[in-house]
From TrEMBL:
InterPro entries: CblAdoTrfase_CobA (IPR003724), NUDIX_hydrolase-like_dom_sf (IPR015797), NUDIX_hydrolase_CS (IPR020084), NUDIX_hydrolase_dom (IPR000086), P-loop_NTPase (IPR027417). Pfam families: CobA_CobO_BtuR, NUDIX. This is Nudix hydrolase domain-containing protein. Residues 9-146 form the Nudix hydrolase domain. The lineage of its organism: Bacteria, Candidatus Uhriibacteriota. It comes from the Bacteria. Keywords: Hydrolase. SUPFAM superfamilies: Nudix, P-loop containing nucleoside triphosphate hydrolases. One of its GO terms (molecular function) is hydrolase activity. GO terms for biological process: cobalamin biosynthetic process. PANTHER family: CORRINOID ADENOSYLTRANSFERASE. It comes from Candidatus Uhrbacteria bacterium CG_4_9_14_0_2_um_filter_41_50.
């Protein structure tokens, strides 16, 4: 192997995210031979700086083969990110721009390490590495999770069975309450006891699902809020003191329901009720904290507070890629209300 001198190297590095069919990424442990001693053992990505006269793909192929013995020259690759970092000692830091490439491989890959690295691991993308990492390694793992829509495992619920988690549905697209009602029906069909608290949805003329809920023995629902739609179909957007009183009444109902009598509790429009100032997020969090551990909780509504997003174990955002509302289609009974 020909070792390139530092003066022959450019200040652009190519790093490879070599990912197998199990969504495991190849990470290599820095041997500390070409950097400071503090880098020894840090998890790195195969790849390095381009040589003069190389194009990025040539530099990527060369570096990966030199460091791992894996020939990726015939593989399709894809740029998935870029970042900056520094090389050299504390008094002579030189900035390098890194390009990150996704390389998908199949089957068992034989890894032959160069003297730059002392060990390697095939690491699951959804897991936090047990070893110390470089900042760009962390960056790349986050980019991969976003690309593959993989979330980092939550150690607080790892392997948990049964009910007791928090689900949150938000966004400006159609389907938040619909999703919650679907889960309520599914749970009821499994023999579970379900409660729904409607926030800011007073009245009964504009909620067709309630006619069906009235017929299901193990689903109870409770209504709070004013009827905001008048006889001409006009919506009242104002927030008055009565709205706050009604919201607090709904929250008190929710507090009682979360004590354990029900398996699943839905707080419909709780997110927007907080966002519009009818409830303080702190008082809602206090109620959630007292929830019995066996009760599954579903929160819906636009513009959720960050405290609720952080507490939820499942977060789904509904985004309107298309909506017939913008074509002048009015709300239709049985579909939109």
């Amino acid at each position: 192997m020909i070792r390139l001198r530092s003066m022959d190297l450019m200040y652009v590095a190519n790093k490879a995210a070599i990912v197998n069919e199990k969504n495991e990424i190849l990470l290599v442990g820095d041997a500390g031979t070409h950097h400071t001693e503090v880098s020894r053992g840090k998890l790195d990505l195969p790849g390095g700086r381009m040589a003069k006269g190389e194009n990025p793909r040539q530099g990527l192929d060369r570096e990966v083969f030199e460091e791992t013995g894996i020939d990726i020259s015939k593989h399709e690759v894809e740029i998935i990110g870029a970042s900056n970092w520094y090389i050299g000692g504390d008094e002579n830091k030189e900035q390098v721009t890194g390009i990150f490439w996704l390389v998908r491989v199949q089957g068992n890959q034989e890894v032959i390490l160069s003297d730059e690295h002392s060990f390697f691991v095939w690491h699951r993308i959804d897991k936090t590495p047990e070893w110390e990492t470089y900042s760009f390694t962390d960056y790349l793992l986050k980019e991969l999770r976003k690309k593959f829509e993989i979330q980092e495992a939550d150690p607080s619920i790892l392997g948990r069975q049964g009910y007791g988690l928090i689900q949150l549905y938000h966004g400006h697209g159609k389907g938040k309450t619909t999703a919650a009602l679907g889960l309520a029906m599914r749970a009821a069909g499994a023999g579970k006891k379900v409660a729904i608290v409607y926030f800011d949805k007073g009245g009964s003329a504009h909620y067709s699902e309630r006619a069906l809920l009235d017929q299901i023995d193990n689903i109870d629902y409770f209504v709070s809020g004013r009827d905001r739609i008048d006889e001409k179909g006009r919506f009242d957007f104002s927030i008055i003191e009565k709205d706050k009183i009604e919201a607090r009444r709904g929250l008190k109902i929710a507090e009682d329901l979360l004590s354990g009598e029900y398996d699943l509790v839905v707080l419909d429009e709780i997110n927007s009720t907080i966002a519009l100032g009818m409830l303080d997020v702190i008082e809602v969090i206090e109620v959630i904290k007292e929830k019995k551990s066996s009760v599954e909780l579903i929160l819906t509504g636009r513009d959720p507070h960050s405290e609720l997003l952080n507490r939820a174990h499942l977060v789904t955002e509904m985004k309107p890629q298309k909506h017939y509302f913008y074509s002048g289609v009015k709300a239709r009974e049985g579909l939109d209300y």
